[in-house]
Amino acid sequence: MQLRAAAGLSPFSEEAAAKGLAGTIFAIVLEQGDRVVGMGRLIGDGGCFFQIVDIAVNPSDQGLGLGKTIMRELMEFVTTQLPASAYVSLIADVPANQLYKKFGFVETAPRSLGMARRAR
């Protein structure tokens, strides 16, 4: 939860986070000593649709290639463990979209746009 906040990701209650973590298919956590400095997760239905979420690097550790390391590990899992027909998506913040492009992700607009809302 601390890394989410430090990296500027949207906040969730601890109860919601615990339920969400149970749906993780694959996760990567980068540690330096006793500090978590980066993370990323893959969630999905197990067969057709998957989403990369919670990509975060501690601001004081940014610029060291940690985001690239996280994506490399996630994509290793995607390309070796998921069905070839699986659809993997993510919502990219700018300028992180440039990193995701290096891993083969393309913008879907104008054909489709990502949309989101909170439950309440």
TrEMBL record:
Residues 1-120 form the N-acetyltransferase domain. InterPro entries: Acetyltransferase_Butenolide, Acyl_CoA_acyltransferase, GNAT_dom. Signal peptide: none annotated. Keywords: Transferase. One of its GO terms (molecular function) is acyltransferase activity, transferring groups other than amino-acyl groups. This is GNAT family N-acetyltransferase. It comes from Fuscovulum blasticum DSM 2131.
